[in-house]
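Title: Prediction job returns without error message
Component: structure pipeline
Severity: low
Priority: P3
Assignee: unassigned

Description:
Job completed but the reporter wants confirmation the result is attached to the right record. Sequence as submitted:
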Amino acid sequence: MPPLLTQVARTSDSLPLVACTTATHTLPVTSKHQQDAQQLMKRMTTGSPNKMSIATGNYCFYYMARDNLCFLTLCEESFPKRSAFLYLEEIADLILQEMIREYGNDWRNQVDQAARPFQFIHYDPIIQRKQREYREQRPQARSQLNEDLNEIQSIMRKNIDEILNRGEKLDQVSNISNDLRSKSKDFKWGTKKLTLQARLQQYGPMVVGATLFFIILYVKIFHIGF
């Protein structure tokens, strides 16, 4: 199934600007999902990670921050992670392109000065068209997008209870993520250092012996020449 819920909000104060759902009888978007989406938006700050996936039961929220806007979607847990973030990238491109087309260079001011919720709800058809594209995609095509996970694996994944129940700000999560990356780099450097030491112990005597051999050979040839 394609993304079931998509919201765009202003990052500075979490004001919702656009919202769209594509729920079905078998996969409904409940009021709890919508409340969770709003709460997640409110947890965002300027120091939050740019991307994150947040598990909630058999579903997963994905969000991406860009140009003082937060793009959030809800998908089935089985929906490929790479496809979810690709979807958000495409939604962001389309929304920003439409804002620039409509407001020109003043589009940022229009976002900053928006005073009422869902002030840009007229962009809803843009999201609906993109959701329809993903709904019509073959599963094989979506699964191929999931093969390249080098970047996506680095995006932090949290459980929604860890954020909402503990009142955890997403910038705190970002600090944890940065600490983990720092420790990972230290570990990798330590591993490389140990590997280098092991190779020196293994091949060092051979290198020293070979060097001495060539020095002695050079000295002998030098003396013979004179």
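Comment from assignee: result matches the submitted record. The helical segments are 31-43, 81-103, 107-113, 124-136, 139-145, 160-164, 170-225.
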